[in-house]
């Protein structure tokens, strides 16, 4: 008797809980449907922040997130997680965070990749410190960037490639505050030892360096520079402890 009564109570409780859950779910779905049809929840504003103010045009961010004025997206049909993935798929964006501001705004906090060099063989292609390649114009303000020459073809699309930047960054750090115009690595692996070199144009000097001892050779350049500071010339450091200066230059 007691067992039968207990089972009846359990069954009744289950029905009550199930009924309540179903009722709550039905109410939620009804409210969601009304909100999805309410134009007040159509996304109409993108608020962007980051280390650089308005680093990218707002219309570009909207395009990346598949937002359109012609076909407005409802706030409750928008996934910030998916939007973040789409933003990070852009070669220009390094970091992104997306959230919603009710009733009709999207908040995007992001960081753009900053070019430290331009890839000479490929017009309008910037390279950041991590070796990522990306277009500069019309998205980023054009800058007077040093050129990087690789001398080897890259697979297209460039956005999928990543360069090894250790050597280039080391050279740039050794020439920290100098006016670097070009770093040419096109002959770094030449079969002939006589042609194997790194060419760096800095200030008004063209430096010919060895791939192994370029750090010591740059030290010699700084020792020599006061004597040739106002001359446009080529200096070859590839023979140990020597520097050949082109006398024909002025």
Summarize the entry for a quick read.
With 250 residues, the chain is α/β, with parallel strands linked by helices. Helices cover 30% and strands 22% of the residues. The model has no long low-confidence stretch (mean pLDDT 85).
Give a written overview of the molecule:
- The protein is α/β, with parallel strands linked by helices.
- The protein has two domains: 39-112, Ubiquitin-like (UB roll) (Roll); 117-245, 3-Layer(aba) Sandwich (Rossmann fold).
- 30% of the residues lie in helices and 22% in strands.
- The protein contains five helices and twelve strands.
- The strands form two sheets. It has a nine-stranded mixed sheet with strand order 6-5-4-7-8-9-10-11-12, covered by helices on one side. A three-stranded mixed sheet has the order 1-3-2.
- A hairpin with a 7-residue loop joins strand 11 and strand 12.
- The chain is elongated and about 80 Å long.
- It starts with a helix and ends in a 5-residue tail after the last strand.
- The relative contact order is 0.08.
- The model has no long low-confidence stretch (mean pLDDT 85).
Key words describing this protein structure:
single chain; 250 residues; alpha/beta; Ubiquitin-like (UB roll); Rossmann fold; 9-stranded mixed β-sheet; 3-stranded mixed β-sheet; 12 strands
- Spatial arrangement of strands, main beta sheet: 6-5-4-7-8-9-10-11-12
User: How many H/I helical runs?
Assistant: 5
Q: How many distinct beta strands?
A: 12
Question: Briefly, what CATH class of the largest domain?
Answer: Alpha Beta
Q: In CATH, what is the homologous superfamily of the largest domain? A: Cell division protein FtsQ/DivIB
Poorly predicted sequence stretches spanning 5 or more consecutive residues: none
Distance between the termini: 113 Å
The gyration radius over C-alpha positions equals 31 Å
Order of helices and strands: HEHHEEEEEEHEEEHEE
* Major β-sheet profile: 9 strands, mixed
Overall structural domain count: 2
Estimate the helix proportion, in percent. Answer: 25-40%
